[in-house]
Amino acid sequence: MTEGEVLEEVKRRVRTRLKGRRYRLYLFGSRARKEGSPRSDYDLALLADPPLDLATLAELREALEGLPILQPLDLVELSWAPGLKEVVEREGVLLDEGREA
């Protein structure tokens, strides 16, 4: 899969599991800065309102782990990482935004 295809599938899987919820999904790190290589991992950050509970976050991570890619894919909930939140909102790329239904 190309990077674009991976990110489209990530967005689709997040939308499916967070339907009806408000959230922002970001790409950050080397891929967001266009400094990554084909082997670089995917650093994803999610800011949900209300914040995701552990069960929902685990379900979402499991869904993303099922992608047919070799690169690691990391997902963090920014509500639990306030220091990272500032960096991601400043330097990350907004991939998708969910709104309440």
Automatic annotation (TrEMBL):
Polymerase beta nucleotidyltransferase domain segment(s): 25-95
Database matches in InterPro entries: NT_sf (IPR043519), Polbeta (IPR041633)
Superkingdom of the organism of origin: Bacteria
Coiled coil: none
Identification of the protein by name: Polymerase beta nucleotidyltransferase domain-containing protein
